[in-house]
Amino acid sequence: MVKKLFSALVLMLAYGFSQELDSLKNSKLLAGPQESKVVEINANVVLGEYKPSAFKISIFPRNSPSEVFISRMFFPGDTIQIILPEDILNPDTLGNIASLEPIGGSFEKIYRLFSKSSESIDLGSFKIEAKSDIIKLSIIDGISLSPVSMAGLKLLHDGKIIFSGNADSMGYKRLRIPEARDNLKPISLRIETSKSYPAWQEIIEVPKGISS
To answer: pTM for the full model?
Structure first.
């Protein structure tokens, strides 16, 4: 009697265990493989008068620039499209950076901040610019030391206007001066303030390689 009862228990336990295995297998089959979502990143390159032979686009998180997600080379005329797993992008607002580095000439490296998004991200247009020396200009009243807002600015070199624009409301402007220039010929800066002050024009010294 004890032997029969023991056999029944073993059979019942074995049957119950096999049912659990079958149930686990079925649940795995129903779940299927988990595919990660991808995001399509698009951009446009505006060449203008410049002709780089190629350009490299890199994507990386803003808080860890050395951790590059992807780096790809493109050529003029290519469609700029990069596909990445969506979950690797930094979820912070403007937490990711795209950089474009033109190859085959003296050009500026361009950076663009962007936020994580689903399905597609449009980085807009990257405009190729020649490498420049940069002057940070602040225009203030000589007596009150208050900023002179929205002053008109012109840079002239070798008889040509190389920059024309306005300072901001705080009298500030970053001026870009092409690095590829004849350094023996002077650069003139002209400032106009809509009759608030007399027009001012002077020759300025801009050593090559300056960025302040």
So the answer is: 0.63
